[in-house]
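Lab manual, section 2.4: Encoding a predicted structure.

Procedure: take the sequence of the chain (270 residues), apply the prediction step described in section 2.3, and record the output as structure tokens. A sample record is shown.
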Amino acid sequence: MGIVEEAHNVKVLGPGDRVIVLAHGFGTDQSVWKHLVPHLVEDFRVVLYDNMGAGTTNPEYFDFNRYATLEGYAYDLLAILEELQVDSCILVGHSVSAMVGAIASISRPDLFSKIIMISASPRYLNDVDYYGGFEQEDLDQLFEAMAANYKAWCSGFAPLAVGGDMESVAVQEFSRTLFNMRPDIALSVAQTIFQSDMRQILGLVTIPCHILQSVKDLAVPVVVSEYLHQNLGGESIVEVMTSDGHLPQLSSPDIVIPVLLRHIRYDIKA
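Recorded output:
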């Protein structure tokens, strides 16, 4: 196993010729895909990895400067694909990793046949003629709460992000992976993500993008999925699912997994 693979806890499952890469979002790790993986391993070579900063990675490897922008994560994704000698893949990117995949695809469109984006947003802050869902004051309060008492913040944020029942297994699972992050790293990652603005690069993304979105999501209003559809440079399609929350592949697998499999298996009709 190479250095990059080891640092990111890369796992490769299944005998298939076609490669599918599953990339998780903030506060989770590759375990967020546990409901999807069993449906893929017979037909695909499935690549799982953890973003640097996830609780499952070595915090000593987290470079605060490198990961102050989403490009740092995009370089990691490209390094993983290079080390595994992947020449083409389908990327399923959740939340921030959808944007990370989009950035990576601009420099290496040959490596991606399509990106399936789940709960993706190019910008979380509201702006003139743009509704991202948050005002700066909201984000400042979120960051202050994280810095003041990270454990208490996790307990409050997890059920809001996941949606649905406070006692659900999905809320407990997200709480666990969120709390596994080192607090200073979690705050830095959250600041990088929530303050990011990827709107200006969307037109440079030329590969097909499948945009999947929960009808109710604390972090990403439904209008954002339509904004992505209108502004991405290549073919795109939107499907708004009846799921609730920002991690629907974890909290509503009965709804989301069939939708994901359909978008994985079928391409956008030109």
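Check your result against the sample. The radius of gyration is 17 Å.
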